[in-house]
Every structure is written in C-alpha cells, then in structure tokens.
Amino acid sequence: MPLRIESCPSQFQHQLNERWTQWRESAGEDVAGNTDTLLEDVSLQRAVARSFVGSDFFYRQCCRSPELLPELLQNDDLGLASIDIEQFGDDESLDRELRKLRNRVTAEVIYRDFADQWDIARVCQRLTELAETCIQAALAWHYRQLVNRYGEPRDREGNTQSLIVLGMGKLGARELNLSSDIDLIFAYPEPGETSGENSVDNQKFFQRLGQRLIKSLDAITADGFVFRVDMRLRPYGDSGPLVSHFAALEDYYQTQGREWERYAMVKARPVAGDVNAAAELMELLRPFTYRRYIDFSAIDALREMKTLIQRQVRARGLGDNVKLGRGGIREVEFIVQAFQLIRGGREPALRERNLLQLLPLLESGGHLEPGIAQKLADAYQLLRRVEHALQAERDQQTQTLPAEEERRQKLAFALSRDSWEQLWGELTEARAVIEREFDAVIAPPEDIAPPSAAEEWEALWASCDSEPAASEALRTLEFAGVEPAHEALDLLAELRVSPVVATLPSASRERLDQFMPLLLAAAAREQQPLLALTRVLPLVRAVLRRSAYLVLINENPPVLKQLLRLCAASPWIAERLARHPILLDELLDPRRLLAPAKASDISDELRRELLRVDPQDLEVQMEALRHFKQSQSLRIAAQEVSGALPLMKVSDSLTWLAEAILQQSLQLAWTQLEEKHGAPAGASREDMRFAIIAYGKLGGLELGHGSDLDLVFVHDADPMQYTGGEASIDNLRFYTRLAQRLIHILQTRTLSGPLYEVDTRLRPSGNSGLLVTSLAAFEKYQRENAWTWEHQALVRARPVAGSRRLCGAFEQLRLELLCQPQDEKKLREEVVVMRDKMRAHLDKSNDQSFDLKQGRGGIVDIEFMVQYAALAWAHKAPSIVRYTDNIRILESLRDAGLMPAHQAGHLIDAYKAYRSEGHRLALQQLPGVVSGDQFTAERKTVQTNWRQLLG
C-alpha cells in the first residue's frame, strides 16, 4: 500500500514512496499488513510521512527494526526501562545495549515531535532521562569491574567512596538536545585508597572509572554512539585532572573560579553517584555560584561571552544559526541566567535550572515585564523545535538553517508548516522578540542610553588628590554649583588616597573609577550637591570591598539618581544604606519603591520571603525577617520623603509592617516550642490560645521610624494542664517560654541588628508581674488594681497577633473596661497629676525651644485630653473607644456630640502638624525639638482646650 497524503509536497512524494517501499520490504508481510491497518488514520499517515521525509535517521532505524514503527503507532509512549547490568557478560554487550536503547529512544522522540504528540519540554525530558539511565548503568557496571580488580575505594576512615557525576549545561537543566554532547564533571569525596590486594589510590581508581564511563558512552561502534562526552568544563579544562576530590574542587572555585564558570555552574546537577555525597558537593559549590548580595558584576561576564560568540558568528558566517545568531537560543539562556546569577543568592526560587520553568518565576518576581515571559517561552520553544528538526535530519549536531531550497521545504514540512516562507516568517518574528529583550537586559548601558555627562568629571576624580590640579578642580566644582567647592574636593581627595582604596584589587578599583564620575555628575544636578555627596560617600566606603554594589549602580543609572535624592532628603536613609548596602536592591525598581502597599501586600510578601528559606534554620529566618523589615522601612521612608505617602499613611504602613513581623515571628516561636514540647492542652497552631496586645504607638497605629514596641501577652488556656510532647511542660510555662522566644527573635542583635526593641512594662504589675497573663487575671487586675494611667494606656491597646478568638475576647473586654462609669472629678485630677509628673521629668522645652512631644501644648497634652475624654464619656457613647488612634477617637467624639466640631478639628490639625514635623526630624536624625517661635498657634489652641477640658 503506497503512503500518499495530500499535504506532502509533490517534490517529496517520490522519496516518501521509495522509503515506504523499502521499509515494507524490511518489515515483511505480517508487520506491514498490521501497519497498513493502523495507517487508515489520516493523522498517523501525516506523522509517518513527516518523520520519513524529515529524518534520515528515523527512516534508517525503522528499516533496521521494522517492528518499531507499528509500536509507535499503537502506543502514546514506549517508556524508558532501567538497564539491568546483571545481564551483561562483558563491556561490549553493555555498550551494544546502551546504543540500542539510545537509537530507539531517539527515533521515538523524533516521531513524537514531528507527529505533534509531544511538546519540546517532554522531548527534552525524555532525552535527559535517557542520558541519566545510560550514565548510571555504565557507571554501575564499570565500578563493579574495577572493584573486582582493585577493591572498594575508601577514605582514611574506611568509608566507601562513590564517583559523583555532575551533569552540566542542557543535561543539568533537563533540556537535552537530540544530538547534544553531554557536559560532565567527575568528583569524589576524599582521598584514600582501595581495599583490594592490588590497591591503588582513589584518584587513580576514579580516573580509570571516568575513562571507562566516557568510552562506553562516546565511542563509535557498528551500532553508533550513545552520547558525545565533553569534559572541558572541569577545573583547568583539558589540562586539569579528569577527576577531583571535593576539597580540591572547592578550593579551585573559591580561589580561581572565573565568571564563565559560574555561568556554567548554574545548571550543574548530580546525575549519578551517592545521593548524600552529591548533596554535600552541591552545597560546597553553591557559594561560588550564587552570591548572597545582588551581583550585577555577572552581566559583564555574560557580555564578554556574548561578544566572543558574536565574533565567531561573524567570522564563521553563522547568522542563520538558531542557537548562536542574534535572537537565538543562547540569548534567551543569557537573559534567564543573568537574573539567576544576579539574584539567585537572594532568591532561591531562581536557582531552578530549567529555562521554561524559570521564565514565569522571573515575571512573577517583577524581573520581566508582564507578558514577556510567555513571549520568550513561545519564541524559545519554536527555536528548539527547529533545532531538533535540523538535528533529526541526519543525527548530526547542527543548529544552522539549511541554504538549499529542497532542505528548507523538508524542514517546513516536518514541522507541519505549509511552506518555508511560513516557517521563516515565524522564526523572524520569534528572533526579534528575543533580540529586543536581550538588549534590554544584557546590552551595555551605553548601547541603550545617551552618552553620559560623567566624562567631564573623569579628569577631576583622577586628579582630585593632586596639588597642581587643585585650582582647576575647584573651578569645575564651583561652575557646577558644588559649594563650598574646597569641602567637596577635600572629601574626594580623602577618599582617593585612603588606605582602603590604595589596596583595592584592580577590578574593584576599575569599578570605583567608573562609578565616581557618574556620582559627581549626578550630584551636581541635585539642589544641594555637597550635601548629597557627603551623605552618599559613607556608602561608597562601605562597599569598596564588595564592589559588585558599585556595578549595580553603574548598570542602573536610575538607581544613582534615586540614591542621591533619598540620601539628600534623609540622613536616616543614607545611614541605613551605608550600614546595609544590600538594600540598594530596593532602588532598582522605582515603581515598586514608591508604590504604597496595603497591609495584606506586606503580610503576603513577608510570607513569600520566609517560604524561600530553610524552615529548620532559625538564624536564616531571623536574618530574612530583618532584611524584610529594613527593605520595607526603606520603601516607606522613600515614599514619605517623595510625598507618595502622607503622614497618616506612613504610620499605617510602619504599623502594618510591625504587625506582619509579629505574626510571622510568633509562628516561628510557636513552631520551635511545639517541636520540643508539643502543643498546650486545648491549643493548636490555628488557635494558640495566646495573643499579642499592642499598646502605645503600635496600639494607636502611630508607629514611627525606629519606634519601640509596647507589648502585653495574654492567654486563656488552663494553666494546670500540660503540653502533649515528650518533653512536656505545664501550659503556663509553655506560654512564658513562647513570649520569651518571641522577644528573643525580635530583640537579638544579628549582623543586621535587632528587629525591634520590646517594652513589656505595661503588663499588669509592670516588671514585677508575670510576663504572660491569663485573660481572667488581666481583667481582675484592670478592675481592682490598675492605676488611672493604666486605664489611659488601655485606650490605645489592641490585639495584633495570635488567636483570633482570644483577640476578639480581648477587644470585648477592653470595651467593657473602658465603658465603666467614672468619677470625672477624680479622673481629671489624676490625669492632670500624671501629666505634670511627666512634663517635669521629660519636657526638653526652654525659652528658645519647644519639645514637640512633651512641651506644654504638645503631642502628649493632646493624647491625655483624648484619653481623659474616652475614659470619662465612653459609658455614654461606647463608639468613642472603638478605635485606638487619637485622630479617629477625636472624630468619634465629634460625631457623638461630646466635643464641638471646631474643637476636635483644631486638635486634629495640631496633632497632625506636630507628628508630621516629628517624622521629618526623625528622618533627618534630629531630636523632636524645634525653635520656640514655631507652632505658636497650635500650642495656644491646645493649651486653651486643655484649660477648657481639664482646668
């Protein structure tokens, strides 16, 4: 039966008929007849036609093994069975079986691809599984043969050693091509020797094992080959030892590893050998591959590699190479791996090796514009399909589009296109997408931006420490508006001649010399150039030994502008950045930096951050919490100084940040104690029977930069019962330890400092009371023993973390306590006495200055009036104590008719004005004291209201 289908171009019909006839002769009547029946399905006819025309290799394999074709037609997947090495009597039988398996699997993936049954990801996955199966079988066979001869390789303590095979490149990423080389690195844990009579050292044993493994895979026999093996990615390349022990590998990469080797190591994955030893090796290599900071220095290495490749493309005329040419496969890989190398140390999710799985992660993480990941994925998959079709034709490693018209039409037909012109149009469009995104990510800044104004500052930086050039330098600075010019020149000269600069490695010095003219040019455009320069230079000094941060700024011109603007606006921001340069990453995306976040956004982002770290490593979790707090605080401060957030929203954001951190810190503390002691009787992670109550600024949603947290801890579990773990303790002890552990997480000074300072003195009986109080005991204390000032504090109290049920119970109790009728005269006297005591001890005002917080007519006077009103009148109008912040309480007093609208309005205006100035001074790292002639109207208004309300 001839195989004819309408979609087959006429010029290939004759070849198709010849090949079909040849296959039928090889198959015999029974197999051919069975296949004819299967091919009544027209879609299967098309699949066979494309495969026979598009792949000489597939056609030859079908003729050598005729039963293969009907098996493919009858099954969706022929599978990949493991290889039993027990069946082999010698190396030749192993090698023959490996090649037979390779030919069958390769033929199947060609057919599935051309039949549109498998996508490119599945094709690559099957080829990767084939490579792993063959490597593991050959390794196991040759290891056993060598052990029979030399004994087992052991370390000095007698532990058996295993050869670890690292798959690099496409094998490591599970993206193997049809005709790919496999890039391998061989390693073993420790030096030693074998245990047999003919003992050899481990190095020699594993070298022979590696050589035999390569021969079984790489040698060409009558059955072909399995995989070409490339070992040039190992340390020192072809001149280095074939196998290295772990310590030697670690030493090499830490002392001599080059940037291109980091690029290669991104895809490294153990494909054979002892699992535990392989995990140990990967952990040793991780610090080399992924830096803990944002590492833009990787881009330069990628650019150099791309430049070399482009030179080869031009020299060898490879413009039609779908891998190496512009807009080719390699450029997609460079885009993805640039982000991996830059950010993989901070974002473990980006250590994923597979490109198609990485692209959506990059987009969801904000590193690619919305929609770009899918466009790149579609373009990449088209190029990979074309690459596979090119290699399927003759089982050759090629990525170059054919020049001959007939081969072009064959390629288009094999890939289900109507014509070469259609395929070429799709390829052109796909490569344009890749090229545009590659230039946006990898191209040097000068290629995509206008020439920098920094060139005129290069000479000044180069000669700022030279006495003869001083007059010219001063004129340049004065002309640019950097005044006093001599102070600026002294700052620059001091930096240039400093010992730390003099001893910098050449690469770091080059980065500094590239950065400083950019800094001077940008500073000259600021309103106060010297101020901006003065505040940024401490950061420069801080990162000189970690000059990748300078590369980050050099690579991202908007970062420098943002850096100067923020540092000029706030020394608090400048100090944070100098102390924690890792926060520079926050300046990379101005939209994200200046976009205010909701409470849920902050909470969700922190949850995602903690999911990225080891849940068993408390130290790493604590660092993650601190970095999150620093980065969010920086964002909030940036939004404040830029005007993106008004005062009230700044406090809201800082409050939401503290709440999110408290919630996650409580979860961490609970997890640790529960693992050790079990959960308290009647409690669970969902209902801990424990709550954190915020007082003061956190309770009143008025947190500022650097504010402490006033916290009280309550529980409602039975104190006489016990936890359910092996190391059981009573419930009360559990909750006390829970609070202590929480405070430890918050206050411990790690490399990044503490999260928050915690004050627990507002708990019942203060420092002499229990750290954790039952809700019943809290109620009894408040009703029978609490001082008036403790009731005042309760006005600003609210639950912020823990059991929702218990939080609700506390809120109800708070309302009941605050709504108790009061003796207004007695209450007024006690509030006034307490205020006078505070002012006597804390007020920093004098004839020339005014203390915003404690001064007469200041913030605390407003707070005391609000608290008095709430306590005195809540029994009449419970709505006035529903909220805990002063402004909404004042609004509630107005709405309830308990305070005239103009009076409430004046107090709200004064309160906002004071707090706004207090925030500004905090960001300037100045005390909350202003000139005595400021806020005179506000102070007068507050004092008038004080007299009216409290006498």
TrEMBL record:
Residues 1-446 are annotated as: Adenylyl removase. Involved in the regulation of glutamine synthetase GlnA, a key enzyme in the process to assimilate ammonia. When cellular nitrogen levels are high, the C-terminal adenylyl transferase (AT) inactivates GlnA by covalent transfer of an adenylyl group from ATP to specific tyrosine residue of GlnA, thus reducing its activity. Conversely, when nitrogen levels are low, the N-terminal adenylyl removase (AR) activates GlnA by removing the adenylyl group by phosphorolysis, increasing its activity. InterPro entries: GlnE, GlnE_rpt_dom, NT_sf, PII_UdlTrfase/GS_AdlTrfase. It comes from the Bacteria. Its cofactor is Mg(2+). It catalyses: [glutamine synthetase]-L-tyrosine + ATP = [glutamine synthetase]-O(4)-(5'-adenylyl)-L-tyrosine + diphosphate; [glutamine synthetase]-O(4)-(5'-adenylyl)-L-tyrosine + phosphate = [glutamine synthetase]-L-tyrosine + ADP. Its EC number is 2.7.7.89, 2.7.7.42. Residues 303-441, 838-924 form the PII-uridylyltransferase/Glutamine-synthetase adenylyltransferase domain. NCBIfam families: PRK11072.1. One of its GO terms (molecular function) is [glutamate-ammonia-ligase] adenylyltransferase activity. Keywords: ATP-binding, Magnesium, Multifunctional enzyme, Nucleotide-binding, Nucleotidyltransferase, Transferase. This is Bifunctional glutamine synthetase adenylyltransferase/adenylyl-removing enzyme. Residues 55-280, 560-811 form the Glutamate-ammonia ligase adenylyltransferase repeated domain. One of its GO terms (biological process) is regulation of glutamine family amino acid metabolic process. The keyword Cell membrane does not apply. It is an enzyme of class 2 (transferase). One of its GO terms (cellular component) is cytosol. Belongs to the GlnE family. Residues 453-951 are annotated as: Adenylyl transferase. The gene is glnE. It comes from Microbulbifer thermotolerans.
